[in-house]
């Protein structure tokens, strides 16, 4: 089945070229022009990738992103906006976005980023359910779902990718450079603070469900997942 892409953009002159380009790539594309329509559509038929404009007529795109994640949407969200600056980028990621593209942008770049997001959401590194010790964290790579005991831990795409890499290198330090290269694609030129934001959210979510493993920062090097489930 073709990947489903939801385009959330209220300006027709921007939306139409996007839709045509993505359809030529073979994706199933749905276009809506408001935040509420986007949330309604995701409730009916979850998308693989959401391309989300921030300047929508009924609500801020960040609110759409936040509500979608709170409702359990686990697909990729790429924010597209005319807003500039590192602060806006970090805030968008903190609300649960996976990528951030500033207007104006080239259609070729957008296509490359969508492909990168689909690669990360359709395949996984790390290890599967059978490789995880009983108790503690359980990572289902194929389904891209994480459990603490019997309870699912809701993670964004970036959070899942970071955790998978750390878990597959349990008790070993994974460098910041490797995490940025493996989780964010080669088109990412933003600040590495985005990694710190993602790590911070991941820690909070794991701690909130009482997971024994800890994501530990190794100053000047990277991060390490440590602690056996029965420790």
UniProtKB/TrEMBL annotation:
Gene3D superfamilies for this protein: 3.40.50.2300, 6.10.250.690, Winged helix-like DNA-binding domain superfamily/Winged helix DNA-binding domain
Alphabetized PROSITE patterns for the sequence: OMPR_PHOB, RESPONSE_REGULATORY
Gene Ontology MF terms: phosphorelay response regulator activity; transcription cis-regulatory region binding
Listed GO CC annotations: cytosol; protein-DNA complex
Keyword line: DNA-binding, Phosphoprotein, Two-component regulatory system
Presence of keyword Chloroplast: no
Domain of life of the organism encoding this protein: Bacteria
InterPro entries for the chain: CheY-like_superfamily, OmpR/PhoB-type_DNA-bd, Sig_transdc_resp-reg_C-effctor, Sig_transdc_resp-reg_receiver, WalR-like, WH-like_DNA-bd_sf
Stored Pfam families: Response_reg (PF00072), Trans_reg_C (PF00486)
Biological processes annotated in GO: regulation of DNA-templated transcription
PANTHER family in the cross-refs: PHOSPHATE REGULON TRANSCRIPTIONAL REGULATORY PROTEIN PHOB (PTHR48111:SF40), REGULATOR OF RPOS (PTHR48111)
Name of this chain's protein: DNA-binding response regulator, OmpR family, contains REC and winged-helix (WHTH) domain
């Amino acid at each position: 089945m073709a990947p489903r892409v939801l385009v959330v953009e209220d300006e027709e002159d921007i939306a139409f070229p996007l839709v045509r380009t993505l359809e030529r790539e073979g994706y199933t594309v749905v276009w809506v022009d408001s935040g509420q329509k986007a949330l309604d559509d995701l409730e009916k038929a979850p998308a693989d990738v959401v391309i989300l404009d921030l300047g929508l007529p009924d609500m801020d795109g960040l609110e759409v992103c936040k509500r979608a994640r709170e409702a359990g949407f686990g697909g990729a969200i790429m924010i597209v906006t005319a807003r500039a600056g590192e602060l806006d980028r970090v805030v968008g990621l903190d609300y649960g976005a996976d990528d951030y593209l500033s207007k104006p942008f080239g259609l070729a770049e957008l296509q490359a980023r969508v492909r990168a997001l689909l690669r990360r959401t359709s395949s996984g590194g790390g290890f599967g359910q059978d490789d995880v010790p009983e108790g503690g964290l359980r990572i289902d790579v194929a389904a891209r779902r994480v459990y603490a005991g019997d309870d699912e831990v809701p993670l964004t795409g970036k959070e899942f990718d970071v955790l998978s890499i750390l878990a597959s290198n349990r008790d070993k330090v994974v460098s910041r450079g490797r995490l940025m290269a493996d989780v964010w694609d080669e088109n990412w030129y933003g600040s590495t603070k985005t990694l710190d934001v993602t790590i911070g959210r991941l820690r909070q979510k794991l701690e909130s469900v009482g997971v024994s493993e800890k994501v530990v920062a190794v100053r000047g090097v990277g991060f390490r997942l440590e602690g056996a489930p029965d420790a």
